[in-house]
Amino acid sequence: MNYKNIFKILSSALVLLVIVGCATTTPIDYAAYKGSRPRSILVLPPLNNTPEVSASYSVLSYVTQPLSEAGYYVMPVTLVAEAFKENGLTQPADMHATSADKLRQIFGADAVLYLSITQYGTVYRVINSVSVVSVEAKLVDLKTGQQLWTGSASASSDEGQSQQQGGVAGLLLSAVVKQVMGTVLNQSHQVAGVATTRLLSAGLPKGVLYGPRSPNYGKD
Amino acid sequence: MLTIRAKCLTALLICAALSGCNTRPTTLYQWQGYQSNVDAYFRADKLSLDTQTKLMEDDLQKIRASGGVVPPGYYAHLGLLYGQQGNLDQFAQYMQAEKKLYPESQSFMNFLLRNFKK
What we know:
The complex is a heterodimer of chains A (220) and B (118).
Chain A (H helix, E strand, L loop, with lengths): L2 H21 L7 H6 L3 E4 L3 E2 L6 H6 L3 H7 L2 E2 L2 H10 L5 H5 L3 H8 L3 E13 L6 E12 L5 E10 L10 H16 L4 H14 L20
Parallel strand pairs in A: 1-3, 1-4, 2-4
Antiparallel strand pairs in A: 4-5, 5-6
Helix pairs in contact in A: 4-9, 8-9
Chain B lengths: L1 H22 L10 H10 L5 H17 L8 H11 L3 H14 L4 H10 L3
Helix pairs in contact in B: 2-3, 3-4, 4-5, 5-6
């Protein structure tokens, strides 16, 4: 064997390595999340950074299913909203400003999920108009105040059903996607369902981990 | 010859059955119309509290009849609907039901039982 051949093999190996390297995305750090092992999650009414007034509660109505199916107990969202209202807090911004101590004391949850909506509604285009919803999330341990996870997701009414997902997440997603395709009425609300399910389902890349009520708990 | 064929067929069937079990995802809970009922509650102008309560009660019967598990928050939300209509007995009863099925809700349910007065 001569040196030329060895060089050829080495260089092709290097090219392969570079390609493979590019394909993998940077993994996110789940150490704090895994250390905290939250069982229950309090989801606060989302901050709404869009002009659409109904955005906050539209998104909130969709959070319970994906998080519960992921294996967590989700504090009943309607009662959470009422409890804040009873205490004079009607704006999501005021609720988000409540201290972790106070939240833990009242709701007894292990973690709190802060959501904020960055896009909600219809973008009008020349040919067709499209509904787009984008949501960002931050999960925080209520005992330590430590940030456990952050994520974001978007959905749009014209993306079709191309992205197939397996498992329960796929099952939940295909159900909400089907609704979007079926009707034009109230489209933004249904697109919000896709975005929220995508954001808060377990078993997806960079997603939330499985919780204790799931048979997949501890396996991810 | 026949027996070998039969054996092959059985093996194939078992394989199919097993892989069928593996690939079909199942949900932990029976949801019925829970999330759209939550949406209706937040919108307030869509359906009367009485209608919302009836929808939740009907779905609860369906969940029980099918042997499914009632999802987190279901009993509590139903209790809230009763509470908003002044039925505090049913309110308390459903908060207790939520607490029993989901002990994680204990602190919050106790807080509500102490504080919720129509």
